Amino acid sequence: MCEHILGERCCLTAFVIFFGSFNLDVGTKDVKDEEIRVITKYHKTLAIINECHILFYDIGLKKNLIYYANCEEHGDGVQCLAGHRTMPMFAFAEKCYNPRILLFTYPNFTPISILKDGYTNLVFSELEYIVSLSTFPQFIITVWCWRTGTKLAWKESGSTQLGEQLLRCSLSSPVIVSQMLEMSECLLLWEINVCSKRCMLSKNKVFLPEAKSCCGFIWAPEGVLHIVTRNGDVYTVDAETHKAHLAIAWLTYNTDNANQKPDDENLIEEASQYFETKSESEEGKQGVTKNKETDDKSINKSNAIPCIAWFKGGIVVAGPDFYIKHFKRTSKVWKETWSILLNIHLVKLAASSLKEYLIGISDRGELYQYMPTMSTPTFERVQNYGSSFTHVCMIKPQCEMLATLGSNGILDVWDKTTGGHVGAMSLEAKYLCMVSSPKLPYIVLGRCDGVVDFLNVYCPERPQVLCQVSLCAWEIQDVQFTLSGSLLVAANTTNGDFFLIKANAGDRMEVLSYTSCKQEVTDFTVLESKKGLHLLVLVSSQKCCKAGLKIIVYEKLGDERILSLKGYVELAGYYIGLSFHPEINLRFFGVLHRSKQIHVLEFTPESGGVATSTPRTHQPRPSFAYTLWPESVKASSLSLNITTNERQTPPLPLPSPKPYSQ
């Protein structure tokens, strides 16, 4: 069973749970020189995929196991994943051109078979079949025998819309596979009938009344399909007529009162009996109990998409209002047995049919487990893997911790060695850049409203805001420290505005200077010398892309507070990035545009000479000097030393020096 996490650029792209009575011997598996032992009779394993990795998490032992799909033998990336319900095996499709479907045992990762042609979704049946779905434009559904690798039957689904396709397989006979385009109104049912060596695929369509948007579905053990819609309502599909009838109407509670419970009068009644054919007019007479809040169009104020799972003989729904509810059917009525209000939203749910395990994953990449208690059931966080990271940086100077910022505004701190989650804090503003101080354990973030935030991570378990500096009314798109960490430069690269901020240990943060080159900036770097600070700005010279041909130099000498314009240097090629050298003060790196070359450049403000760099393990590299003679500086010059490997393509011919003009 494979479920994809909603949202763009999610770190965890698939969520699969293996549950089954696997009578296995004690086994071992090495992951990064760490031995993980599997000593359990009943495996309860969750699998998460991301690009070319599959992370297996044993819920009982709370152990992680990683499978690397980064070669021909083990697979080239992971597009989708499916786990067998009762057998210790899993299958995944590669994420590459001409992908394959590979099947392995768990936890030893022994190859079982390889199926040609790749697909965007997979699902196992109860027996020896696996069903796959291809991508746009055909969307071909294929039935395979995974034991022999034989393709038994295939047929075009007729779907013409792009989007996330969901597949589920029924738990009873005959095998029925449900296919649905996420957030659509139509659902396809594929009945699979196998006789000897012949396999037949028959298709039926299910339309939801009132054009409700489907966002998930689940098969009950008795072969009944339940569908959850965008507003949390649950529909049941009639097995004979293939019509969907309202079974559960989602009731919203006042989220300000977490202890509020539904009254007995507000029991959720079945709109129509799924074993009887009812017309839409008759359905309105069944008297589905709703409160006035259910019909409110703004029910989904959090923009959360509901999800559904079958758990302990009933239905669990994580609704649009941060409530998780469990329903059981008694006679013709679905009754709510318990409800839990969380401060996060679960985007996917999966449950065990053999053990009382209910696992959910949040939009923050956190795993939550249902904990039944005598008084009130709860969901407890058991793991945190993070999700949708937009920025990452090491926490210096020890570099033992790692800080990440997610698109949901959560700053997480991780242990670099173990990968464990150490601490987190919630940030409300929109941040465009993040960098850590090279000498002290604090982080600087640039906001879209012109404010720079300083976060103290000395105690990584409890990050906190150290101070905030308001610089302007427009975006702070980049922040860079000097090598000593005593100064930092915050910039708006669109307008070319630069702010010099004092950041000494023990002193208050102070804005020393402001300057602007009034041009779009590709990148910049900050260097230090005995004379002072040197700001090198690579301005954009192309309209089609951010690439620069000219570096503008600003300086702050000695105890001066202002950044003064020194001059500029025209380069022989276009560069897209600059970065200072971590060990040598006046040396920095330049990344060439549309090239794999990284040039080593050296800034020499005091002398016009250029030193030649000759690495021991390489052939001598030629040096190219760009010299600038400003009118205001008679005895000194600005020069850049560019070092490149002569086995690569040499730079363009050198231009003649151009005088500085202010």
From TrEMBL:
GO terms for biological process: cilium assembly; cilium movement. One of its GO terms (cellular component) is axoneme. Keywords: Cell projection, Coiled coil, Cytoplasm, Cytoskeleton, Repeat, WD repeat. Residues 275-296 are annotated as: Disordered. Residues 277-296 have a biased composition (Basic and acidic residues). InterPro entries: WD40/YVTN_repeat-like_dom_sf, WD40_repeat_dom_sf. It is found in: Cytoplasm, Cytoskeleton, Cilium axoneme. The keyword DNA damage does not apply. Belongs to the CFAP43 family. This is Cilia- and flagella-associated protein 43.
